[in-house]
Amino acid sequence: MDYAIKATNISKYYNKKRIIENLSFNIPKNAITLIKGQNGVGKSITLKLLTQLITPTYGDIDCSYTISYAPDTLPKNIKLTVVSYLNYIRKLHVNKRNYIDNEGLNHLMERFNLSSFRNTPLTELSKGTLQKVNIIQCLLNNTDILIFDEPFSGLDEATEQTFINYLSELAHDKTIILTAHNHIIENTIVTHVLNLNTKQFYQVHDKKNIELKQILIPNQKTTLPNEIQQYIADQKQGEHNIIALTALKTNSNLLIKSLIDHNYEIIEVKDL
Predict the structure, then answer these.
(1) Which domain holds residue 254?
(2) Is 177 helix (H, G, I), strand (E, B) or coil?
(3) Where is the ABC transporter domain positioned along the sequence (predicted)?
(4) Is residue 265 part of a domain?
(5) Other C-beta atoms within 10 Å of 127: how many?
(6) Whole-number Å distance between alpha carbons of 116 and 154
(7) Which candidate, 24, 28, 166, 227, has a CA 20 to 30 Å from the CA of 251?
């Protein structure tokens, strides 16, 4: 098995206070790993260790892949609009191998229903909207490993579902590591869990069991309503003026119903 990150006997101390002690685990490539545990057990510290923002007091972390990171919150003093901030982050990576271009940024803003806030200063955003910006900035470098600290905090239910669908699609060629206070995600797309209370790392779902469906519809040259987008994991322009929508199999019936309710013609539905 190929591993994205290997941690061997890592410990972290702050002012002689033990935060993490003698922790070992191997995260497989293309896994979706949930790091969980009670408050104060060191979840955020573990994420920062994995991103190499901080180093362990003892032990080793082996990772040769590129990493993007979304902290639990963005700084509150960023005096830029949404689009200015995201373009600034995007341009930091413009010379790297797989940065997201301007079209990709616009697509992400549409997916997360941020387009109407593009000229709004970050200081004026609600917690949930600011969290969407935080999630997108993590995606702009198009790295091998994506690490999110409490990404669902502040999100409404529709955006939670949009994000879950998107993570499922990303996991086909990326490794995803996250913390989440609400562990409902553990029963959806998470493949592995690192429990810091017990120091156990275990598999919960085989990613092969995360089934997808593709639904083909005509391209009507308009943005799909949010009521439809919340069920979509991926959207691509196909041949002959066709749009291919990908959804988790568990969401496919809801997506089909929503398309019908909005008078969209469905050309074909197939398993992936």
Answers:
(1) 211-271
(2) strand
(3) 5-223
(4) yes
(5) 10
(6) 18
(7) 28
